[in-house]
Amino acid sequence: PTIYVITPTYARLVQKAELTRLSQTFLHVPQLHWILVEDAPSPTPLVRDFLASSGLTYTHLHVLTPKDKKLQEGDPGWLKPRGVEQRNEALRWLRETAAAAGGKGPPPENAVVYFADDDNTYSLQLFEEMRYTQRVSVWPVGLVGGMRFERPVVQDGKVVRFHTGWRPGRPFPIDMAGFAVSLKLLLANPKARFDGDAQMGFLESSLLQNLVTIEGLEPKADMCTKVLVWHTRTEKPKMKREEALVKQGIGSDPNVEV
Ligand code: UGA
Ligand code: MN
User: Global pTM?
Assistant: First the structure.
């Protein structure tokens, strides 16, 4: 089955580095279709050229997060959810494309959808775990939620609760990186999407609660005992020297893409 990987992304100093790391992981994954959604008013040349030479099968979309939904300089990182409009735009594209195909041709019936942020670290094994998802599959996520890892707790092959340090009573206390959904299930529930107004920590639940119950979750990665994805975050590079040189008129050549 094809895996549709949905990635929101936005322009910043580390963007090309993040996309390079991500794409070079994806190049090792068979039957992967990357849906890269820019948080931008129009597609940027950097991302367009990057994708064109990536060697991947991809779809390039864009939607700008409205200003009132976007974090402002100085806001705490948890105030507003990120990547919401972009993931919903990808879901819209998948549904539209499926409808246009009218059952014939792509997207294939048994395809799987995964939401992969551009800064996380993904093991190749993760994609083989999710590939045979019937409805919604789940697994542990490393280095997230202020913990070594979070995970669904499995008993007799079923998810019975979640190991998490924060608000375990959420409908689905799972990070975005910790689940995949079958395309069929998303097409059968045409209204299911992410709710950007959901309370902090409830973004994943806002999609999943319209698709599945805890009993219906399919535990992967050896019954959720293996960490195959890490919620890494990239440090913001310091530009003190650059700014000093720019003032002297000898900053790094702006024509060199970084
Ligand atoms: C955590 C979760 O892992 C995310 O899935 C969730 O969207 C996020 O919290 C949230 O609270 O909304 P975190 O590392 O804090 O992740 O978020 P980022 O990695 O900064 O952003 C998630 C995705 O959205 C990334 O792919 C990023 O490139 C994208 N993004 C971020 C945008 O498209 N626009 C932005 O302005 C910021
Ligand atoms: Mn992140």
Answer: 0.96
